[in-house]
Design a protein that fits this description.
Residues 256-283 form the SHOCT domain. The chain has 7 helices and 14 strands. The chain is 27% helix and 27% strand. Strands 1-2-3-4 form a 4-stranded antiparallel β-sheet. Strands 8-9-10-11 form a 4-stranded antiparallel β-sheet.
């Protein structure tokens, strides 16, 4: 950048441009998305950025956005495209009168970027630090940097989880993390075991998973948790996977879940869009 330490302040965040990185500081105001408040700040090396865009926003604003290389940020890897636009940590919303200034910084950033189209070899942005914890619907999840622990709630945990007892998972035994946003149908956090043993298809039956709902497992708590675990998994050994999808379900189970989803839709508890998206997801698992 032309001057180290230049700052571009927008709504809910400010970007400080340095010689080799962009430091994003998030506000802690009442209107600031809770995920931003939980993150506090993020230092993004220029080598992690693949591109920069500037586009018109809503209601007299412009949006400056940094596009990160695939695999550069454990938070985005864990989110797997599920973050809503307003919670994108790499969007800086500015009043329209700052468009010229934003365009200047966008051009400056672009001039410093190398070819970032290839996926990153490893995480370039640090995950939120451990220790971390949050309350899911059926358990309290905690992570001390080396071990993930689930302590079941008798009011929410299934009988299968109670029979299995409280769980502890050393990072070295994990191959990945699967996070499904609590803002969508069937939100959960599932730990994928390195030994490759089959895991129950339904998270509420899997002792290596906790489920969200009714205000439990909010994005600003469960996603930074997932990102912290994911970074630890990646660092634990060369064989560690970044993430893993859910195991395939039995066709009869898929049919039952779609039937249940249809009942929720007819009852008005699931919108048309949510019904269509989730139905497509279930069919894709066949």
């Amino acid at each position: 950048m032309s001057r180290m330490g230049d700052v571009l302040a927008g709504f809910h965040a400010a970007w400080e441009f340095e010689s080799d990185s962009v430091l994003i500081r998030y506000e802690r105001g009442l209107r600031t998305p809770r995920l931003f408040q939980a993150l506090g700040e993020r230092r993004v090396p220029l080598e992690a950025i693949s591109g920069v865009t500037l586009a018109p926003g809503k209601r007299g604003t412009v949006v400056l956005r940094a596009e990160l290389r695939a695999g550069a940020d454990p938070l985005l890897e864990a989110a797997a495209g599920q973050l809503k636009e307003g919670c994108d940590p790499y969007r800086l919303v500015l009043p329209a009168e700052k468009e010229t200034l934003a365009e200047y910084y966008a051009d400056e950033l672009k001039s410093l970027l190398s070819d970032g189209s290839a996926p990153a070899d490893g995480f370039l942005v640090s995950a939120p630090e451990a220790p971390r914890q949050f309350k899911a619907y059926d358990a309290k999840a905690s992570f001390d940097g080396k071990t993930v622990a689930f302590r079941w709630f008798w009011t929410g945990a299934s009988s299968e989880k109670w029979k299995a007892g409280d769980q502890s998972f050393p990072v070295a035994e994990l191959a990945g993390v699967e996070w499904r946003s609590p803002e969508f149908f069937e939100g959960h956090l599932r730990l994928v075991r390195r030994n490759g043993d089959a895991q129950p298809a339904q998270p509420d039956q899997d002792p290596a998973a906790v489920v969200f709902g009714l205000g439990y497992g909010p994005v600003h708590e469960s996603l930074p948790f997932a990102a912290a675990v994911l970074q630890a998994v990646r660092s634990s050994g060369p064989a560690a996977a970044v993430s893993a999808g859910a195991p395939r379900r039995d066709p009869a189970d898929i049919a039952e879940r779609i039937r249940h989803l249809g009942e929720l839709h007819q009852a008005g508890l699931v919108t048309d869009e949510e019904f269509s998206v989730k139905k497509a997801e279930l069919l894709a698992e066949l």
